[in-house]
Amino acid sequence: MTLTFAPDTASAIPLHVIAEDALETWLADQPERIKAWVGAAGFTGALGRTLLIPGEAGTIEMALAGYGSACTRARGRFHLAGCAATLPEGTYRLEGLPSDQAETEALGWLLSHYAFERYHSQSPAKARLIAPEGIDATRLEIIAAGEALTRDLINTPASDLGPDALEAACTAIATQHGASIETICGRDLLDHNFPLIHTVGRAAETEPRLIDMRWGKSGPKLTLVGKGVCFDTGGLNLKPGSNMGLMKKDMGGAATVLGLAHMIMALGMPVQLHVLIPAVENAVAGNAFRPGDILTARNGLTVEINNTDAEGRLVLADALAFAAEECPDFIISMATLTGAARVAVGPDISPYYTDSAAMAAALEGAAEKVADPVWRMPFHTPYEAMIEPGIADLDNAPSGGFAGSITAALFLRRFTDGLPYGHFDIYGWTPTAAPARPKGGVGMGARALLEALPKVLSL
């Protein structure tokens, strides 16, 4: 799997990107044999269509990639990645692509080469691309590598990616970038006052842990917190089988945070980066935590457990409380937290919460620029009463089913001590294959955040 651009070469095949309304103009400058070939093939410039044009010696003289219309392009992204998948192996040079689309389409082309082949060979795109002029090719290769890391982690089943293996993945990234890493594991979590992380993970064979990675000596302090539930049975509130099938992806927040951390460190962003990943498996055993239990979090807040399947917010609570103790300039959490978020915006959009106008404004423009859609959701303070059960400070699973993603975000905000904070309630999975996004694990929100961080942190 090579997520890099091809070296420039004079023998590269020209790939002409042609919109439907530009085909006639392009054909006017071509010799009669090419006009006849295009006409006989029925090529119209429709989005995603490709056409190879042979030269007189029978080799490929050029290729055409349909770029559709503004209307059809608006219904998707990474359009040339779809073309890359249908082109034969070779090196291609783009011609005629609008410059404002070069970065997004080039990244999509790189991502079209991703395949998860740990257990079975796949068939990613073979056509390689020379980086278009005017783009930062190194930056895009780093972003693609971060995305591939996220996808690999999410796609790996819990049999091979428990909390210990997730720790090993973090250690590998820390070693690669010269970051420090420390792990608090098992009953040591109690000694270091991480009671919720321990409680959620104590029933599993592999011990729960908090993974703590740090990088950078100067600049604003940025803390990333990722939910690392490596498998979620639902605990004693056992999920039905149909809902358990994708629970290997319940560490998607941790995977996305690690992918983003790789991007930040590889690009040398001038920040002090702190990454916290509570890594657990929510299992069923005689010592599993129970509905009705009341737990005390790291910051002293008590939590009534009304559903053991709402465990992600519990492990994040301890990690967020720890993050807040160091007073960073910004805290960001990412988690595959609620089904309510999927009902609200579907699988392709990253809903996020923040009280920071600067973060919201920066993400608005960044998400569109890098084709990583996000949608701001409200920290609706009047709903605070919904997470206050009376018998304890907080309820981990309010009854009624209303505003499930909002109440989960409000729960998490209680542990940030009023510091600047953003929370992403992501899905982490592509249910149906799309250009540059095969079915399976996917990063969500990381590229938009990477683009927005300089403004958010005033770098």
UniProtKB/TrEMBL annotation:
InterPro entries: Leucine_aapep/pepB (IPR011356), Macro_dom-like (IPR043472), Peptidase_M17_C (IPR000819), Peptidase_M17_N_1 (IPR048816). One of its GO terms (biological process) is proteolysis. It comes from the Bacteria. The keyword Plastid does not apply. GO terms for molecular function: manganese ion binding; metalloaminopeptidase activity. Its EC number is 3.4.11.1. Keywords: Aminopeptidase, Hydrolase, Manganese, Protease. Residues 307-314 form the Cytosol aminopeptidase domain. GO terms for cellular component: cytoplasm. Belongs to the peptidase M17 family. PANTHER family: LEUCINE AMINOPEPTIDASE-RELATED (PTHR11963), PEPTIDASE B (PTHR11963:SF20). This is Cytosol aminopeptidase.
